Amino acid sequence: MSTPQDVPAGKHAARDAESQDTVSQGTVSHGSQQPRHGNGNGNGTSGVPLVRLTKAGKRYGAVIALSDITMEVGAGEVTCVLGDNGAGKSTLIKIIAGLHQPSSGTYEVEGTEVSFDSPRAALEMGIATVYQDLAVVPLMPVWRNFFLGNEVRKGLRMNIPFMKKTCKEELLAMGIDLRDVDQPIGTLSGGERQCVAISRAVHFGAKVLILDEPTAALGVKQSGVVLKYIIQARERGLGVIFITHNPHHAYPVGDRFLLLNRGKSLGYYEKSQITRDELTGLMAGGAELEQLSHELEGVGGAASELAHALETDVSGGHQSAAE
Amino acid sequence: MAQTAEAPVTPPPSLHDERVGRKSLLVRFLARPEAGAIAGAIVIYVFFFIIASPFRNANSFASVLYVTSTYGLMATPVALLMIGGEFDLSAGVAVTSSSLTASLFAYEFTTNAWVGVLVALVLSLFIAFLNGWIVVRTGIPSFLVTLGTFFMLQGLNIALTQTITNQVASPDISTLQGFSSARVVFSGSFTIGGVNIRTSVIYWIVFVLIATWILLRTHIGNWIFSAGGAPIAARAVGVPVARVKIGLFMAVGLMAWFTGMHTLFLFNTIQTSQGVGNEFVYIIAAVVGGCLLTGGYGSAVGAAIGALIFGMVNQGIVYAGWNPDWFQFFVGVLLLGAILLNTFIRRRAEAAA
Q1: What sign does the dihedral B117-B123-B129-B132 (CA atoms) show?
Q2: Which domains does chain B have, with CATH numbers?
Q3: Which has the closest alpha carbon to A182: A191, A174, A171?
Q4: Would you put residue B193 in left (φ > 0), alpha (ψ -120 to 50) or beta?
Q5: What is the least distance, in Å, from the CA of A221 to any CA of chain B?
Q6: Is A184 helix (H, G, I), strand (E, B) or coil?
Q7: Predicted TM-score of the model (pTM)
Q8: Which among A87, A277, A291, B157 counts the fewest CB atoms within 10 Å?
Q9: Residue B123 in 3-state DSSP?
Q10: What is the pLDDT of residues B203-262, one digit of tens each?
């Protein structure tokens, strides 16, 4: 998942244990199945989640895009939103990012109910969205992109040496060691570009980062790079909402998982309540897969072999959950 | 949190990285947008220097610079607009509209010439604002919007002048009050070492420097590049893209007014059909100077050198004693050559970066 020198496994585990302890009041072991939901006291720092949606829904005229969604993210936490295409992930982001208002339910930021009329308003509350493709201007140098819209001025002109230095430092703090902040950002890899966008949001005071499918267009290695920075952001005490359709990306970094399907919540889990296999099973549409395996069995021959494979896949998840 | 644990491994950041090998000066030069134009300008200068003996004369070079400045004054804001991702096809006739407005207003109402100058300024800025406003409000490509304003202005130039004066040119305004002072300001000249230089050359250079400073050193420049390079991304991080674009159109309007005043006070009278086709010259200068047609890339210095190439060819053909009918053919060759060269250089530069 991540290279050792950046996020030592031990430290990660220690952090997990620490936050679990705060919540479960020092219950037995780290691996216990003790749930830590219910009181929203998941972050161990302030007690109030940075962002909380309660029974939020969104209708576009007669179309119900989203209904009854409850989720939260606290400081130093990663909440993953998983769902296939059309599950309502984008609508959810748009609500949190301030592009849309929920048509039902409530949206709270640090305990206060809010109603954003623009992304700018959300940004002012520290909620920053990093979109998959829209994050950067490819032909502009890295440092110009970093400060775009927030240029540091010295009189009429920009304080360029300061901006270049800050950009380099901020990127380094996120573990991105760029050769030259003057190169066009288009020359960076997709993963690096996402990371510049993330560190930019962090630098400009984001408390909550919404990452819209940051790994969707990336290869395996590049995805790993982005996941590493998600953990970096979490280590720095940010709340991260990580939207993805890949459970293998979500599970290693997530603290909570919200599964969406056709605009509804399929389930909302703490990491301790769900295994990677279950998550994968749910994402693949567990029940639907079982149905499919029965149908395939009916056909016989090679298809029934496939059906077996599917069944083990689905029930395997259940077994490991029972352990 | 446990962040401090890994702090010691972080080396102090510096602006220089040992991995940034010393890029050769040539590679760094080629990575600039104006590289192709500079190379082209040198070739064309040397070419005419060799084949056209009058070209070597300082006075004739001053006149090359003068012709250059009349195009360069407009090529500068047109380049900025192009970097900002838009076109203005009405830029050529807007110059004439501005001169006609100033001269007709001042003449018909027998006001001080400066009153006409101010009326023309307001009108030029207003037309430019409308161009920009329609483009950002409707999202219709500026190519089409300004093509519309181009024909409207051209029609107004001819029809209104005809209606008012019954002629195809504006009346001579040299007898009006304030004419001589306006002439000094807009169309003056001075002599250094026996070479007569028009002030428009100085204005042009100053405007190029200002434009370059804005582009590279101010946040507005950042916004211009982003408005052309990736408007949606720019808007997402808080850049007022619509205002930037309207501002750029108005910069074109401002310079159209300035160029119009220069022409008016130099010749006292203006032909109504003047200016048609110049919009392409401005765009050619910007493109030859390395501006991308799609926006987001280019430089004001490049556009200035593009204008210089245009001016050198324009005058060089005359000095070489060739048939000036060939001029447009050469302009076409230049444009195509510059685009090919720019594309090639950009690919090389991107590979080297």
Answers
A1: negative
A2: 33-184+200-347 (1.10.3470)
A3: A171
A4: left
A5: 22
A6: strand
A7: 0.77
A8: A291
A9: helix
A10: 999 999 999 999 999 999 999 999 998 898 888 788 899 999 999 999 999 999 999 999
Q: Which H or E element spans position A165?
A: helix A160-173
What is the Cα–Cα distance from A218 to A202, expressed in whole angstroms? Answer: 22
Q: pLDDT tens digits, residue range B250-308? A: 999 999 999 999 999 999 999 998 889 899 999 999 998 888 888 888 999 999 999 99
* CB atoms B233 and A237 under 8 Å: no
Instruction: Assign domain A9-274 to its CATH architecture.
Output: 3-Layer(aba) Sandwich (3.40)
In this predicted complex, what is the ipTM?
0.81
User: Cα dist. B274→A52, B95, B154, B158, B248 in Å?
Assistant: 65, 9, 9, 10, 24
3-state secondary structure of A240: strand
Q: Which residue has the higher pLDDT, B85 or A150?
A: B85
Beta-carbon separation of A76 and B239 below 8 A: no
How near does any CA of chain B get to the CA of A277, in Å?
30
Q: How far is B193 from chain A (nearest CA, A)?
A: 37
Going by C-alpha positions, the residue among B4, B12, B13, B3 that lies closest to residue A232 is: B3
pLDDT by residue (tens digit) across B39-96? 888 988 999 999 988 888 888 889 999 999 999 999 999 999 999 999 999 999 999 9
Query: Tokens 């540091």 belong to which residue?
Result: A152
CA distance linking residue B306 with residue B290, whole number of Å: 8
Give the distance, in angstroms, between the CA of residue B225 and the centroid of all CA atoms in the same chain: 16
Asked whether the beta carbons of residue B229 and residue A139 sit closer than 8 angstroms, the reply is yes
Closest chain A residue to B215 measured between Cα atoms?
A157
Q: Strands, DSSP E only, in chain A?
A: 51-60, 63-73, 78-83, 104-109, 112-113, 127-130, 153-154, 157-158, 208-212, 239-244, 256-261, 264-270
Q: Which of A76, A137, A236 is facing B226, going by the closest CB pair?
A: A137
Residue B132's pLDDT is: 97
pLDDT at residue A5 tops 60: no
Give the list of residues 6+ apart from residue B295 with CB closer than 8 angstroms, or none.
Answer: B82, B83, B84, B85, B86, B227, B228, B229
- Are residues B146 and B242 in contact, defined by beta-carbon separation less than 8 angstroms? no
Is the per-residue pLDDT at A215 higher than 90?
A: no
State whether residue B229 sits within 8 Å of chain A by CB: yes
Supply the mean pLDDT for chain B: 88
Q: What is the DSSP letter of B326?
A: G
Q: Where does residue B258 rank: exposed (0-12), middle (13-18), buried (19+ CB within 10 A)?
A: buried
Beta partners for A241? A79, A210
Has residue B343 got a pLDDT over 70? yes
